[in-house]
Design a protein that fits this description.
mainly beta, single chain, about 5% helix, 20 strands, two-stranded antiparallel ribbon
């Protein structure tokens, strides 16, 4: 009752991998110490009913490794003859062609592995308050990926080999609190809250050598958003003339987006793209459940929230009237668009046919704060407790309740519900729902 230990392992095989790499051994160990059961802890048991420290560490694996394009079953290189070559000679009169590698077979692919660590603490206070806290860390490795660092100068042009080189770290902590107490006779109050912080990053992507550090994905989150930094909208032709060349195939005019020249070459190119905003997956998530029950009356609430999260508008949310100009005009486009009269307050570009593609490029202009606090549902009701009256009616139990869903949302997004996906214009919107229900048991 004081010291706990558990050891387990699996020896797994898969037909997705080649012979010689199909089987892998995955062990795990868990340990626990119930401190409150120690003799020296007895003076504290009047306040702390239970105190447990626990930890686990293990290795798990997956044969679903790599992207969907990974050719796990292709063990033959694909080559196209006389497809690629070069021209030389004093007058460029000699052309030589040879085989082109279309794809390399996946050789010696193995299990994707993850080392998982969890350290936790369980506390019960005054037989009313339960607290659970966990710190977790996961290191994933042997992830199948393209060897992007292999240079074209060695012949790795269209195709590059596969290898189990990818590495990713995930870490964070979780906290949950449960409190239940009868404050006075027939008045029961219950509270449940949870809080989670999670982060991740690429450790090894086998990336090519980039000329600029802001292009590197290694060390950055998986759900990062990449694009241009927008320094507002051009207010005048004079400002355009004194700015880096930004046309990218378009003639820039006042009201168009002004992109930042990160590398200082006086021209906006793909080398000026960098991480914009926070990751799309929130760093913080939290929830709160509250309930009260008094002589048959009951009320419950459920709140949820997320913070340090960004949303990137896409598609119809960037282009007024949508692709092909066949959709309705969104209200925020009309309210925030640039005109000569709104040049000082506008936050979205001018309406234009010729420069729509230029203005719609992924940039910080289309990044929005995705944090929110939401009242997910509220239920209020009454359970009839007069057993004699119910018995006369032939009823064992009778209850009535009213429930509302998605009633309140506090956010800075404003365009749509922050839990929706602004990259999918055809997704069904989150709606408010009211339910009136009666429970009868005969």
């Amino acid at each position: 009752q004081r010291y706990l230990a558990e050891i387990n392992f699996g020896y797994n095989g898969t037909e997705r991998l080649a012979k010689g790499n199909r089987f892998e051994f995955f062990p795990a160990l868990s340990l626990g110490w119930v401190v409150s059961n120690e003799a020296f802890f007895e003076p504290l048991t009047k306040v702390i009913d239970n105190l447990k420290i626990r930890g686990s560490y293990g290795l798990v694996g997956s044969d679903e490794t790599g992207p969907s394009t990974a050719q796990h079953f292709l063990y033959i290189d694909q080559v196209k003859l006389n497809e690629i070559g070069f021209t030389t000679g004093t007058e460029s009169e000699v052309t030589k062609k040879g085989p082109e590698m279309l794809s390399y077979a996946v050789r010696n692919a193995g299990w994707e592995r993850a080392k998982k660590l969890d350290i936790g603490l369980d506390i019960e206070l005054l037989r009313q308050l339960n607290i659970t806290a966990d710190y977790f860390f996961e290191h994933r490795y042997n992830i199948l990926l393209f060897r992007e660092a292999w240079p074209e100068s060695l012949g790795y042009y269209n195709a590059k080999p596969w290898s189990n080189k990818g590495e990713v770290d995930n870490w964070g902590f979780e906290l949950s609190i449960n409190w239940r107490k009868e404050l006075i006779k027939d008045l029961l109050v219950e509270f449940r809250g949870n809080f989670t912080y999670t982060r991740n990053k690429y450790v090894n992507l086998d990336e090519p050598v980039y000329p600029h550090v802001w292009k590197i994905a290694t060390g950055n989150p998986l759900s990062r958003t990449v694009g241009y930094i927008a320094d507002g909208l051009f207010a005048s032709q004079e400002e355009i003339d004194h700015s880096p060349e930004q046309n990218m195939g378009s003639i820039v005019k006042p009201g168009d987006v002004k992109y930042r020249d990160l590398n200082g070459d006086e021209e906006i190119t793909s080398d000026d793209q960098t991480i914009i905003g926070n990751p799309t997956r929130p760093a913080y998530t939290f929830g709160l459940n509250y309930g009260i029950n008094y002589k048959g009356f009951f009320l419950t609430m459920n709140w949820t929230g997320a913070a340090q999260r960004s949303l990137l508008l896409d598609g119809a949310f960037r282009e007024p009237f949508g692709n092909g100009k066949i959709r309705g005009l969104m209200q925020f486009h009309a309210d925030t668009r640039w005109t000569p009269e709104t040049a000082g307050t506008a936050t979205t570009p001018r309406f234009t046919e010729t420069n729509a593609v230029y203005n719609m490029r992924s940039s910080s202009l289309w990044v929005r704060d995705g944090s929110y606090l939401k009242l997910k549902n509220v239920t209020i009701g009454y359970n009839f407790t007069d057993k004699k009256m119910l018995k006369k009616l032939g009823i064992q139990q009778l209850g009535i309740k009213l429930t509302g869903y998605n009633l309140l949302t506090f956010d800075k997004f404003d365009i749509m519900d922050p839990e929706c996906n602004p990259n999918n214009a055809d997704s069904y919107p989150i709606i408010k729902i009211y339910n009136l229900g009666i429970n009868l048991t005969f």
